């Protein structure tokens, strides 16, 4: 099964970002083909030097670095949103709207948080 997780939530405004990260790691550990697209405020999860401890939360940056250990290599960012947040060089493939539509169409299920 091909699953696309769209990370669209601010990393520390609520538990959505952590919930999405936990869900995609579980899916990958059970053999699903997992892709991740960071979009909207979800791109803030990629900001360097995050410290969730100030909010009594785990920092997401270190957890995101572990994605390749779970064979999650298909990681994308929304090009327009990356430009808006000044994250032009995230190290992940930046997709324009037409490529995002194709990415969504290529997956069996799409989960957005």
Keywords:
Sulphur_relay_TusC/DsrF, 113 residues, Hypothetical Protein Ychn, Chain: A, Sulphur_relay_DsrE/F-like, 31% helix, five-stranded parallel sheet, 4 helices, alpha/beta
Structure, explained:
The chain is of the alpha/beta class and 113 residues long. It has one domain: DsrEFH-like (Hypothetical Protein Ychn, Chain: A, 3-Layer(aba) Sandwich), CATH 3.40.1260. Helices cover 31% and strands 21% of the residues. The protein has helices at 16-29, 60-65, 79-84, 97-105, and strands spanning 2-7, 33-38, 74-78, 93-95, 109-112. The protein has a five-stranded parallel sheet. The mean pLDDT is 88. Pfam families: DsrE.
Structural topology:
Blueprint lengths: L1 E6 L8 H14 L3 E6 L21 H6 L8 E5 H6 L8 E3 L1 H9 L3 E4 L1
Parallel strand pairs: 1-2, 1-5, 2-3, 3-4
Family: Belongs to the DsrF/TusC family.
Pfam families: DsrE
Protein name: tRNA 2-thiouridine synthesizing protein C
| Largest beta-sheet details | 5 strands, parallel
In the CATH scheme, what's the topology name? Hypothetical Protein Ychn, Chain: A
Q: Report strand %.
A: 15-25%
Total of domains = 1
Question: What's the overall geometry?
Answer: globular
The strand count comes to: 5
Rg of Cα set: 13 Å
Which CATH-level-2 architecture? 3-Layer(aba) Sandwich
Mean pLDDT: 88
Q: What is the CATH H-level superfamily?
A: DsrEFH-like
Family: Belongs to the DsrF/TusC family.
Protein name: tRNA 2-thiouridine synthesizing protein C
InterPro entries: DsrEFH-like, Sulphur_relay_DsrE/F-like, Sulphur_relay_TusC/DsrF
Pfam family, one: DsrE
């Amino acid at each position: 099964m091909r699953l696309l997780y769209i990370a669209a939530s601010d990393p520390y405004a609520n538990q959505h970002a952590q919930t999405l990260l936990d869900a995609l790691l579980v899916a990958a550990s059970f053999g699903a083909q997992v892709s991740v697209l960071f979009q909207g405020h979800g791109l803030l999860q990629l900001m360097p030097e995050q410290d969730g401890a100030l909010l009594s939360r785990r920092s997401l940056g270190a957890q995101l670095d572990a994605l390749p250990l779970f064979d999650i290599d298909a990681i994308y960012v929304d090009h327009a949103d990356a430009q808006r947040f000044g994250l032009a060089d995230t190290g992940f493939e930046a997709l324009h709207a037409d490529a995002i539509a194709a990415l969504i169409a290529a997956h069996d299920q799409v989960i957005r948080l």
